[in-house]
Design goal:
The structure is a single chain. The protein is mainly alpha-helical. The chain has one domain. Helix content is about 85%, strand content about 0%. It has 4 helices and no strands. Helix 1 packs antiparallel against helix 4. It is elongated and about 65 Å long. This is DUF4233 domain-containing protein. Keywords: Membrane, Transmembrane, Transmembrane helix.
Length: about 120
Amino acid sequence: MKNPRRAMAATVLVSEALVVLFAALVAMRLSGAGTAASLGAFGALSLLCLLCAGLLRVRAGYVLGSVLQVAVVAGGLLVPLMFGVGALFAVLWFTALHLGARIEREQAEVARRLRP
């Protein structure tokens, strides 16, 4: 049985990595931080999202994912629109964790009932 919480959380993180990478391109033009700083900050954040998606097999991956949500919201300091985008992804992240855990419990209950 596939782990629904991990699948949902990984989907959020990979999607977030793509959006953060595109935010780097926006930050290059709109931010006063400069091209190297913008690409470095958002590029590193994007790579961390992808790394975290791979770490979801262990509990530390979920903790890192939660910390990354704060970092993505903080990206609004360079690109103000990222405050809203980061908040949206934070809601998606915590919803994925909550619903994924609920699906796991329900699957376990169904499996328990089906056992002879």
